[in-house]
Amino acid sequence: MKNQLTRFRWLVFVLLLITLIPLGASAQGSDPTDDDVNAIAKQLYCPVCENIPLDACGTAACEQWRGIIRDKLAEGWTEDQIKNYFVDQYGDRVLAEPPRRGFNWLVYIVPLVMFVVGGFMLYRGFKAWREADPGSSPKSVSRKKTKKDNLSEEDIQRIEEELKKRSGGL
Amino acid sequence: MKKLLIWGGLIILFAVLGVGLFRSQQGQMGIGEMAPDFELVSFSGESYRISDYRGSVIVINFWASWCESCKPEARDLEAVYQSYLSRGDVLFLGVDYVDTEPEALAYLDEFQITYPNGPDLRTEISQAFRIRGVPETFVIDQNGFITHVQIGPYMSVEHIKSTIDPLLD
User: Fold this and answer.
1) B66 and A90 in contact by Cβ < 8 A?
2) pTM, entire model
3) Do A112 and A56 lie in a common domain?
4) Contact yes or no for A59 and B16 at CB 8 A
């Protein structure tokens, strides 16, 4: 009975091994998918096709680059290693997001500076416009209201009577 | 003081942008200009610095394996290189632009090119020559000045020789 139990355990163990082997083999031999390749390719730009990310570019050069990404992924390279490889080969300009160093800082600073300068110029322009046309400014409107509000009931009544007289005379 | 800093900063910023724009509009290096010095490390590992070859005529050909219009001139360039080889005063260098090494080596093998060829690492050489595409070829005289710029492929062996022969004794 004990022997039978041991045999059964061995049988289960062997069966388990058999079922695990194909799983292990398929994981080791799995090729990178197009999605894996494109996840890295979309972060790169080939200098030959300006403004087209590598994942969307159809030229022979870009096709070769995607092939390199696929090969490197199959070799077990990480995303950063692959990006560094392309930078070493072709320079910083292949990166969709250039590293923050040296002249690359201009890419990040210039739009911000332009935005601030543009906003400041707009502010100055509107301010000058309002000062040049006081009639349309809210301040002058409120001033008029104040004058009207200062008229007494008696004054208003007199003005209305005067207006009635004049309109009756016509 | 604050205003001075703001205006100073803006002037520097616009100057940098202006220089960048000017450089991008410059076009290729032209005839009569001193060729920029560079070092090319060939696929087989040898190093070539063009300033070490003063006294020789240098032909620098920019190409790529994906470039269809580079192919017609590839064999002609090799033939011309072979015809000058015994003289020893004409250096041919192939600069492989934005390419992948296996395809580049296959290209060299296909067209049986034997003169030194190497990758344009970080595209520094092509940027120095301000090339706009491939193929482009620069002929440099014995004093380091550019004497011919070929944009697009050469048409024939005679065409290539006609840009080199006038520089030789």
Assistant:
1) no
2) 0.71
3) no
4) no
